[in-house]
Amino acid sequence: MDRRSKDLRKIIVDILADQRRGHLGPAMSSIDILRVLYDHFLKYDNKDPDWADRDRFILSKGHGCLSLYSILADKNFFPKEELMSFCSFDSKFGGHPEKFKIPGIEASTGALGHGLPIAVGMALAAKIRKQSHRVVVLTGDGELNEGSTWEAALSASKHKLSNLIVLVDYNKFQSYGPNREILDLEPLLDKWKSFGFDASEFDGHDIQQMKKSLNGTSSNNKPKAFIAHTIKGKGFEFAENNIEWHHKSKITDDEIEKMYLAIK
């Protein structure tokens, strides 16, 4: 990891050090993807989060919200200090992101499988209105078990939503075990292609590879899908591919110290 990826992870660790709970695993598998999106791809205005010409980003895997909160704070949508209230009784920063409470959040998510249907509706509306913005959605691989995802994918293909981009955080785990044991998704790339998407894959922690792939998207009339191969808990050896860190509560001083050492 370079300094930028470590600094973004530090924001998340600061939150965990204060509140001692959260979904570390999915946040760390997705943070590098969000870094590339917000540093190099998406159009947005932190002073005017509802700017009409902005690109829309939906974090469908809402339980991974610590990654989105950290990048939005880094981009000055709100002060970083506000994040220290995460999951407090009166905080606007809950365990899943909520629209109308947090600047930069396009949809309330966490009912897994709903992000892509919402994104398809947004992309179709933009096409009808002849608007030029893009709609980008990041799904988890576990939520691809949901039928609503594939219904939305069929609709996106039917309507030739070339303004829609789907990224899959493919860390190979869901909340209580490996995908291959619960409901195997392979061959995942071929599935997206069979649903009419212009689909490809990359390393979801390789910044340059992601930049090249996203900014090289073709201009055909198909929706796009990128399978991002990631590591759950990336950056913290004791948490990587460790299902106990999907969500962790009562995080200890020793565990927090190990996190800080890992991103020093």
What does the model show?
With 264 residues, this protein is α/β, with parallel strands linked by helices. The chain has one domain (3-84, 92-262): Rossmann fold. 38% of the residues lie in helices and 14% in strands. Strands 2-3-4-8-7 form a 5-stranded parallel sheet, with helices on both faces. Helix 8 links the parallel strand 7 (198-203) and strand 8. The longest helix has 17 residues, at 3-19.
What is the gist of this entry?
The protein is an alpha/beta fold and 264 residues long. The chain is 38% helix and 14% strand. The chain has a single domain, classed as 3-Layer(aba) Sandwich (Rossmann fold).
Fill in the keyword field for this structure.
single chain; 264 residues; alpha/beta; Rossmann fold; five-stranded parallel sheet; two-stranded antiparallel sheet; 9 helices; globular
Helix count, DSSP H or I runs of 4 or more residues: 9
- Percentage of residues assigned to helices: 25-40%
Distance between the termini: 11 Å
Under CATH, the topology can be stated as Rossmann fold
Output the CATH class name.
Alpha Beta
Q: Strands of the largest sheet, in order across it?
A: 2-3-4-8-7
Q: Considering the protein shown, what is the CATH homologous superfamily?
A: Thiamin diphosphate (ThDP)-binding fold, Pyr/PP domains
> What's the architecture, going by CATH?
3-Layer(aba) Sandwich
Provide the domain count.
Answer: 1
Helix-strand category = alpha/beta
Largest sheet: 5 strands, parallel
Mean pLDDT, all residues: 96
Give, in order, the helices and strands. Answer: HEHEHHEHEEEHHEHEEH
